[in-house]
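Design job #97: recover the sequence.
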C-alpha cells in the first residue's frame, strides 16, 4: 500500500523508532476520533463503564499502570500469537487473520464495556498488521514490536484517563 501509515506499517525493514512512532500514531489518531464520536452519541454511563473496567480503586495506582502498560500488552500479544498460529495452521489468508484478530479483540473488550470494543477493534487491526509485518523479520521481533505499540497506546490512554479523572 502507498497510503500512509500503511506504507510504513507494511514495511518490515523500516527503522524501529520511526516504525513504532508511525504505528502509535496509526493507533492514536483514529482511536481519538472513534472515542469522540462515541462520546457524542452514547450515554455517559456507557463511557464511564470503560473507566471502571480499566481502573480498580482497590489496587494501587502504580500497579494498575504497570499492568495496563506492560503486562496487558505482553499477555495480549502472546494470545494474539496463539491465534495467529492456529489461523496459520488452518491456512487462513493473512488479510483475514488480521480482520479476525481485530474483530475478536474488539468483541472481547466490548464484552467488558460495550463502548470499549469500537476503538479496540481499530487498535487491534493495527497491532495485527504490525505483527504480521514484523514477523517477516522474526517472530520475536514481531512479538516485541507489537507489545511496544500496544504499550505506547495504553500509556497514552492511561494518561488521558488520569487527566479526565483529575478534572
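Job complete. Output follows.
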Amino acid at each position: 500500500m502507498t497510503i500512509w501509515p500503511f506504507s510504513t506499517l507494511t514495511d518490515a525493514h523500516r527503522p524501529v523508532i520511526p516504525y513504532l512512532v508511525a504505528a502509535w500514531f496509526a493507533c492514536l489518531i483514529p482511536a481519538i476520533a472513534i472515542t469522540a464520536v462515541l462520546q457524542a452519541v452514547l450515554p455517559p454511563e456507557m463511557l464511564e463503564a470503560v473507566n471502571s473496567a480499566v481502573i480498580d480503586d482497590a489496587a494501587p495506582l502504580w500497579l494498575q499502570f504497570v499492568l495496563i502498560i506492560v503486562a496487558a500488552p505482553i499477555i495480549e500479544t502472546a494470545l494474539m500469537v496463539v491465534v495467529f498460529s492456529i489461523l496459520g495452521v488452518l491456512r487462513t489468508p493473512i488479510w483475514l487473520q488480521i480482520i479476525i484478530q481485530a474483530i475478536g479483540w474488539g468483541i472481547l473488550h466490548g464484552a467488558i464495556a460495550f463502548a470499549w470494543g469500537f476503538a479496540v477493534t481499530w487498535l487491534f487491526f493495527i497491532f495485527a498488521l504490525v505483527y504480521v509485518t514484523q514477523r517477516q523479520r522474526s517472530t520475536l521481533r514481531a512479538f516485541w514490536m507489537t507489545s511496544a505499540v500496544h504499550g505506547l497506546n495504553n500509556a497514552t490512554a492511561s494518561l488521558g484517563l488520569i487527566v479526565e479523572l483529575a478534572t
